[in-house]
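Hi,

I'm pasting everything inline rather than attaching a file, because the server keeps stripping attachments. The sequence lines come first, and each chain or strand is labelled.
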Amino acid sequence: MLGKTANGLTWMARYIERAENVARLIEAGSRMSLTRQDSEGTEWSAILTASGAGWAFEEHHGTDFTAAKAVDFLMRDPNNPGCLLAAVEAARTNGRLVRTALTREVWEAVNDMYLDLASVLAKPVARRDLPDMLQNIRRHSALIRGMVSGTMLRNEAYDFLWLGTFLERADQTARMLDVKYYVLLPNEDAVGSELDLAQWQQMLRSFGVNRAFLGVHGTEYTAANMADFLILDRRMPRSLAYCTSNAARHLEHLSQTHGGDSEAHRKLAKIREDLSARPADTIIREGLHEFLDGFVVKISELSDTIAKIYRFTA
Amino acid sequence: MAHFDEMTGFGDITRQPYQSYETWLKEVDTDHLAKKANRAESLFRRTGITFAVYGSDEVDERLIPFDVVPRIMSAKEWAYLEKGVTQRVEALNAFLHDVYHGQEIFKAGIVPEELVLNNEAYCPPMIGVEPPAGVYTHIVGTDIVCTGEGDYFVLEDNARTPSGVSYMLENRETMMQMFPELFAQMKVREVAHYPEELRRSLASVPPPVFDGNGRPTVAVLTPGIHNSAYFEHSFLADQMGAELVDASDLRVKNGRVVMRTTTGEEPIDVLYRRIDDDFLDPLTFNPDSLLGVPGIMDVYRAGGITIANAPGTGIADDKAIYSYMPEIVRFYTGNDAILPNVPTHRCREKDALAYTLDNLADLVVKEVHGSGGYGMLVGTAASGKERDDFAAKLLAKPENYIAQPTLSLSTCPILTKAGLAPRHVDLRPFSLVSDKVKIVPGGLTRVALTEGSLVVNSSQGGGTKDTWVLEA
Amino acid sequence: MVDVSLRIVHETRYDYGVPMGYGLQRLRVRAPSGAAQIVEAWDVTITGGSQAARFTDQHGNESELYVLTPGASEFVVRIEGSVKPLIEDGVVGEHDGSAPLGLYLRPTPLTMPGQAVRALSESIGTELADIHALSARILEAMPFDTSVPANALAAEDVLQRGAGVCQDHSHVMIACARHLGLPARYVTGYLKLNDREEQGAGHAWAEVHIPGLGWTGFDVSNGYAPDTRYARLATGCDSREAAPVEGLIFGEPQTTLSVALRVEEAAAQQ
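And the predicted assembly:
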């Protein structure tokens, strides 16, 4: 497979995953601000930070963190290069670039997502349409993953797609968890407060795993339990452990066609070791923010290594 | 002027190839057709058969308009065209070999030497080069028009990188989804095997360096995702099971052109390139080209790769050469051309120039090197001022122009908002050349969507139709 | 019969200063034997690259493409050889080769005639004496001047500039000759200057196909007809097609080009 194609597949998948995560962030933001009318701004500021658009927002809108402005900025504002529409466009451009490595159904699902969102997001989304809209985005991305599972050969292309998906998802989960833990609460006294609990619940809900959490940890919405669930629980499809172990599986498949392990395998193995080295409460004690920050950096280094060894660019 | 209509001839009869279709048509109403047309459009959008139009700051993605009424041909009509196009394509290849080798045709005084050697489309680096299997034009698109029952003329040969075949294939695919009942009832010959034939044809001309083990590696070279024909490039690569590469994937190494893959570098045996000669190799041609592969011509000339179509084939479809095609066909095949040319006045010749200037109102005048319907004057449709302006251009550089009578192109019904209405059409069948010439039955029917217009180019408001060749 | 040979040692060195990535060099450095000369010995040694292709081009030049060795910071072409020149009066004779003579009438971007070229060719005939007169006229209009920039410019531009080196003079001669309807071509090679053996650079001259004589050389810069002091390397429609070394380097290295060239007369081998 062409190095360029591997690059395009990885990024197509990453951008789709990213679009879905932006949608989930907006969902979390909407829920949080709905439950607490008085300080809407804090949540949206944090959500913008989590999506990496905080500075860009302030540059264009100052600190006017209203829901309408924040949602529009996250969804479709051309001043936000990381907005949902830009991610979908980038996914589709990458899809066109690697069209020959996709099945017709996968490509059409990607193109459909773009055509649908480009037309809906031609103008601001009314607040009443937002829930449907967000659900629609999740459906599109689920459909694409389903088409990948259902129609593609289990070859290199398949592995690069999933590698992109899981690296992006791990990155996004880490960022979101960090924002909730580090940015959202007004002060340390608020830990364990009603506000704290509500925020954790909304976050779980936006991931679609609130019921699952209940099954595992009951109603103990402590930072340690959340960290355990979102970082270490291998059954939870957005946890860092789950994402990295799946990424490792696809990297493993690739090594079979590429004659053995590489620097990327070693890097990922180290990341996974660090994840399983200590329980959640130790992580919290040693500093969750530092832990997540370090994780995000290591994932980004791993991406660079993968790009290098699989000759993504000349 | 009465036009010959593909469906109704010159009068109210229904021509034989359209009889079953007409019966079916009587049973459906135009609303039904309009619904199908809408559905077809959304299918095309979804597949992504769009081309980019670059405006001042925005990129607009457009579809080439598709019409749901097929253009239908009888087996007999097709057999005649197939024979005529095959003969012409063989002659083109013989001509190309000759102008880059022995130049017998100059010595015989049939085509003026300077018209070829001084032509920008003539490619000196091809002199003395023996392309694999002697094939220059692996793919040819021949533009044909019809003016009456069996009255076909070749309007243009496209021997460089003819495009449009993806529309032929997708049009058929869409028609089969829209109107399965028609295909069940009428025996329409298949076109879907074109990509396989293309692959077979390309794989049958590996370069001398190919050792005969395994299958030759075929790749399609595109200028990139921003090219207006990118869809077709990726479509053909996909359908052939070949890699789609751009210049950034390729480099020259150890006598081969290699592509950068996830496991290393893999040599390409046959490159179906969809970029023009001028941009192919900055070391040999335009040094400013960023789209090309530096050194690929050296590798080609040393026998390390097959380039399809071969560089320098443009001399065969040059409009100045076109007018000599009947003589060219006779010279190389020993027979008269089966398919006639449109009578052509070469404005480089004094008498022809005078005639052209005197009859501008009735003629179509084209730029010798132009394409896409640009730089041309349709005398019957032009205003007095447009004609005067054009006459000035013509006088300044007469050798740049040829003139042809305005042909009364056949029409074919299309679906308009007001129901079915006739519009002018042409036809571009695609020939594949290896040890023989192979033509998939059908081609791309282009249609001028504006009433009365004769310009079928997609860049100027043309659309397309599916082309049906009946089995009997 | 002439009884001297020219012994040539020619080293061209590109020093990139940094380890190189991908880059190409196309060479036309195989001196041909023919009506003008017999090549007695010819060795080419390349350092810093590997051969990617070799073929005979439309002008009969042996053309070689080299890919720079990844990581190498220099590329060196060393030529050592001996040539026995066969002509005394510039007349090489009838055309042969795969390219039709008519090809040498075709203008190239570097030899496209403009107003100045047309004016200079005014009232010039097509006899040998006419072309000699043209040669003198060119040198008068643009005296030899090594201070002009070294990059190849179009004939029309250098003529309007009014100064040039052998490359420029040859381009103007070619443009004028073609304008007069005579085929013309560009030749690269060596000249043994009378007063010295170390030379600063290779040489170039023009050849015009004169009816009755065939290809005839004109060294406009020196006012000579190429004779036994000349050895030829490559031919083309202009300098781009006849350049002995033509490179394409990616990135922007600080390249230093150095040339060491020695042309000396030696007793002919019998």
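The mean pLDDT of chain B is 92.

If the labels don't parse on your end, tell me and I'll reformat.
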